[in-house]
Amino acid sequence: MTLVAGVLAVQGNVSEHVRATERAADSSSDPIEIREIRSAGTLPDCDLLLAPGGESTAIARLVHEGGIAPEIRAHVTAGKPVLATCAGMILLGRGNDDRVETLDLLDVVVERNAFGRQRDSFETALEVAGLDEPFPAVFIRAPAVTDSGDCEVLARVDGRPVAVRQGPIVATAFHPELTDDRRVHRLALFESTRVTQ
């Protein structure tokens, strides 16, 4: 069976997630087809969803204006896997910023730019629940979770949650697509797929 992965492509790290998903799929027994989601009508045919980092205000506006928001809600309600990174985590979370119309699909409140601006970007070897060795996490204008609600916290930096899981959603404040390590993509998308099918 061919899995169809949709990458939200209205703004942000689209091509990086496409490549990361292709490489992560190499370890899956199922072939994969990747579609870029730029308008309504593409996501309903997808088994997996990636919500990339980028500018959260722009992504949220375009998702709502383009009619993609209800399709994302339906995807999550159906229990289909989602990997949301950085701005994607903000988009799926609970709103605490009037500039971003969130989807309230993930029971987290997220602080934008929690670790500082662009010049404060950093990398760290991060212990992530479900991974056997530390992950080389890249933080760029990264958010952090201020309230993790009913989510399982998978990783923390300085005590602040930076990776969570709730139902079919895995969300990270860092950018796993910017490394050659595909374990987060496999954990979020392919391991979850095997469980739900």
SSE blueprint:
Elements: E1 3-8, H1 14-25, E2 32-37, E3 48-51, H2 56-65, H3 69-77, E4 82-85, H4 87-92, E5 109-111, E6 122-126, E7 135-139, E8 144-147, E9 152-157, E10 160-166, E11 169-172, H5 183-196
Parallel strand pairs: 1-2, 1-3, 3-4, 4-11
Antiparallel strand pairs: 5-8, 6-7, 9-10, 10-11
Helix pairs in contact: 1-5
Could you explain how this protein is built, in words?
It is a single chain. The chain has 197 residues and is α/β, with parallel strands linked by helices. It has helices at 14-25, 56-65, 69-77, 87-92, 183-196, and strands at residues 3-8, 32-37, 48-51, 82-85, 109-111, 122-126, 135-139, 144-147, 152-157, 160-166, 169-172. Helices cover 26% and strands 27% of the residues. The strands form 3 sheets. It has a 7-stranded mixed sheet, with helices on both faces. Strands 5-8 form a two-stranded antiparallel ribbon. A two-stranded antiparallel sheet has the order 6-7. Mean pLDDT is 91; it is low at 193-197.
Q: How many helices in DSSP terms?
A: 5
Strand fraction band? 25-35%
Into how many domains do the coordinates divide? 1
Sheet of most strands: 7 strands, mixed
Rg over CA atoms: 15 Å
CATH level-two architecture: 3-Layer(aba) Sandwich
